[in-house]
Input
Amino acid sequence: MKPENFPKEIRPFIIPQHEGELIYRCLGCGQQYGIDKLLYTCPDCAQVLLIYDLNFEGLKKIPGEIWRKIFDYRKMLTIPALKGIYLYHEFIGPVIPLDSVIYLGEGHTPIVEANDFLQQKAGVRFYFKNDGQNPSASFKDRGMASALSYIHFLVQKGSVSDVLAICASTGDTSAAAALYASYLQPHVKSAVLLPHKKVTPQQLSQPLGSGASVFEIPGVFDDCMKVVEALSEKYNVALLNSKNAWRILGQESYSYEIAQSFEYDMENKVVVVPIGNAGNITAVISGFLRFYETGIITSLPKILGVQSQHANPVYRYYLEPDAGKRKFRPVIVKSSVAQAAMIGNPVSMPRVIHLVDAYNRMSDRQNVFFVEVSEQSIMDWELLANRNGHIACTHGGESLAGLVEARKQKIVGNNDVAVVDSTAHALKFSGFQEMYFEKSFPAEFEIVPDPALMNAPVYVHPKDLLKVPAPGKPLQGAEFDYFVERISEEVATRLSLKKVLKA
Output
């Protein structure tokens, strides 16, 4: 659809016109810095940064009703730069020209309502948002589309050249970073650091396939992160972890899409996200706040952050009810099926503290909650979800387990409707499903498979069937007919099928 065919009142806004003035703002000392250079921490106090638009007040001059029409009609455009997360250009990257935007198909992932059985089992009406249907099969593509679009803009301006983008990862970040960096070859190359033997084979194959330099090091993600931080401080590299505030901006699109999917009605809604490096929950909170401040939504949904008992520093921090007595303490993580959440010292923790306070204050009540769940419940709920039509990863299982726990604690009410984040595609973590079905989980995971959820292939070869087909050696004639007859009989017996009565 062409802009001239849109309603008159929104035609001036369909192609983004807002001139943003973005700055980095330190959450520690409050200092502000220009965005002409890539910054990850405050040069004065080393605290993390968030990106703010000094012209944000201008967005408030457009009524919320008009904004809703702008976004709804903008979805009809065929302009590639506005088909992904930059549909919300004014809120994500208003300094980035459309010809700098990298669009690889990210964003606008489906929200799928759970079937009646699963909703009754969970005790609440809920939907999965399948972020595993992003290009690299995880939500990380949202942040990378933002971070790499900005780097692309700097390259086009001549501000940077021969960029080496680097990140630490438990798998998904590296896949997304390598994919988006590869699109900008030869101007951008990528390198990733992974904890040795702590990444699934499927995830490891992704950055390798995208041509990244991949380094495995001893330890866990937190150790990789320290190495990457040291590299970003001493060498000319672009850090692509969620310490990069541009990543947070891109991931805010998750909130905007949820709002749009529910016709901008966030009353009695609950958004459930797993917590790893705390970048995603930071982005989700920030995104809803921006839409609320501009009147696009008129109520703020409840936010529920979920952590495994094996990696729960954020949950532990908020166990103390008195904000004045809270003290953040990193934890030593244990093995978790939610590998991306297996982080004991999340770099975005200062952002969480800052934004949770702002969100609760804006809501006039506590509206952000945290729960912890067992590894057993993560696997059981993931498998149950996927037996009922979903493609949830282990982190989707973690989120669903957290929703069920929150329902038990009455954090989630009878009339609430939840959106559960499945951050990646189930196939990335199929190895954990295999261990569950084969009863081969190492003891440190503390998972005992439920026979009702186990499954395995059955090899069908009746003993009396002496001749069977093989590659390059097909059966023919009566031998093939007998093969089909005996195999079909055996399958029918195992499935307890009844023969069709012929008239």
About this structure: The longest strand covers residues 188-195. The domain at 111-135+252-453 is CATH 3.40.50.1100 (Rossmann fold).
